[in-house]
Amino acid sequence: MIAVDWGGSRLRAYRLDGQGNVLASRQGAWGALECGQRFDEVLVATLGDWDDSAVVMCGMIGARGGWHEMPYLACPIGIDEIARGLQRLPGGTSDGRDAWLVPGLRCAEGNATPDVMRGEESQLAALLDAMPAGEFRVCLPGTHCKWVRVRDGRILGFSTSMTGEVYALLRHRSVLGRLMPAGDDALDGDAFDLGLERARSPGGLLRHVFEVRTAALFDRLPPSSLSSFLSGLLIGHELRGTLEGSSAGRGPVHLVGSQQTLEPYARALARQGMEVERHAEDLVARGLHGIWARRASSP
Amino acid sequence: MIAVDWGGSRLRAYRLDGQGNVLASRQGAWGALECGQRFDEVLVATLGDWDDSAVVMCGMIGARGGWHEMPYLACPIGIDEIARGLQRLPGGTSDGRDAWLVPGLRCAEGNATPDVMRGEESQLAALLDAMPAGEFRVCLPGTHCKWVRVRDGRILGFSTSMTGEVYALLRHRSVLGRLMPAGDDALDGDAFDLGLERARSPGGLLRHVFEVRTAALFDRLPPSSLSSFLSGLLIGHELRGTLEGSSAGRGPVHLVGSQQTLEPYARALARQGMEVERHAEDLVARGLHGIWARRASSP
């Protein structure tokens, strides 16, 4: 089968063997929100000569305005129930494949309106299969970072923080970004830690971020360290808003993402005395395989 | 004399009589950060046929990278000391006027690095002259909102919140902005109040702003009300970060700005049981006149 993680700005396809091992992977040209509704054309071009007949997709491709709108299933939920929620894409693809979509999840954990995820449930499916009994916390950093509580193979609930998107806006589009050199942001651990520390003080995020500017103005930090300070401020506020007053769970926090994305989270959690265990983001392929393997016989 | 409020993105010039009354006002073509260092050319074109010989300027025009870098004077400070800090622009303008710049202010009120202002001190100067004895709080909303404590004619300290800039980024550049109709944002009082209320709950700003998206997804708010909800969330967090644990001062909160800018702040403060008094933003002209009138004889 072929597993497809098709988010708003990115398409990744994985060709899997019968045990869910990745044989090959490809990056598509367009995210689900960027391709102007040319979903079939983009997918067919990406899969090309892979001759597998089944395609299982997760992510924004199943959102309203995506290829085929999928419901949000309520938490708590386990993999079997997610698998029962798979839906077949009407008509399949133009190159004759059977395509399936994974539902999204919603939960009402302490929120006025339910929180939602699309795509992360498939990464979580891979973790759930491998975890021992007990309650754990999983963090999936990104544009919209998800913090998830899981217990005994079920997803209990989660919350979303817009940390990645707010960072990108302040880094590249704000008056703060003008103070920072262009190019990749290397993590300056000391400046990052300073941001974490400031985030624990009174004043709130909207005041704290202005300190990126004054730190530059009064030469407290070199320009190349300002992005790390900003990152520390934001992740510090995210941890404060997410961990305070919430049950801790046992064992390490499970972090899912690329090496570069996880580095600041692992550092921030370590400074709070929390253990972490890292997982590569392509575990989504194994998760989609697990969901697919458990589906009821197709309708 | 001519009073000039020259911020990063805006130039406003006022022609004043001997008592500081505004005879005429003009908007210049370029802000101080937009004009590519052509400060003299832009100012001369703006002032045109006004034949006054003295020009007094405040704002980002005195920042590093502006026309002539002015120091930040330390708080607490009164108008006389600000007036003594006026500096003459070397060489004047190319059309033969004497030009002066007002210094900025800094304060270390509970911050790791000093906070700063440029321009707002000249608006405050007008208020200080008119206020009775006692301690007051002044709020100057905008891209970077300033909250100022004043007492007996002196500026004690202040803090900056990036509320306006973060609102603009999330409104126009984020995934949340795509959910909102284009055009002017009319204030929906109920949606705004809902945002204020959510801001008082646990979770933090980075989580709360994602609720703009879920409120749209689950039809809790119509698209035209989402910007008001976002505004309520941000101003609610600003008030929480600014007012909590800070001495309240007596009497109303003095709000300085345009009618449209002040409306949500007046509403948010009223809902916390605080009285407000509004002041138009062009009081900067009277403030610059007051500073100019009190200057020591020119060097």
Feature tags:
Nucleotidyltransferase, domain 5; transferase (chains A, B); 15 strands; kinase (chains A, B); homodimer; DGOK (chains A, B); six-stranded mixed β-sheet; 10 helices; 2-dehydro-3-deoxygalactonokinase (chains A, B); 299 residues
Structural class of chain A: alpha/beta
The low-pLDDT segments of chain A are: none
- Quaternary state reads homodimer
Overall spatial form of chain A:
globular
Mean pLDDT of chain A: 94
Rg result of chain A: 20 Å
Main CATH class of chain A: Alpha Beta
Order of helices and strands of chain A, N to C? EEEHEEEHEEEEHEEEHHHHHEHEH
* CATH architectural name of chain A: 2-Layer Sandwich
What is the number of beta strands of chain A?
Answer: 15
Question: Which chains have the largest interface?
Answer: A-B, 47 and 47 residues
Distance between the termini of chain A: 18 Å
Tally of distinct domains of chain A = 1
Strand ordering within the main sheet of chain A: 3-2-1-4-8-7
Q: Looking at this structure, what is the CATH superfamily of chain A?
A: 2-keto-3-deoxy-galactonokinase, C-terminal domain
Strand-residue fraction of chain A?
15-25%
CATH fold type of chain A: Nucleotidyltransferase, domain 5
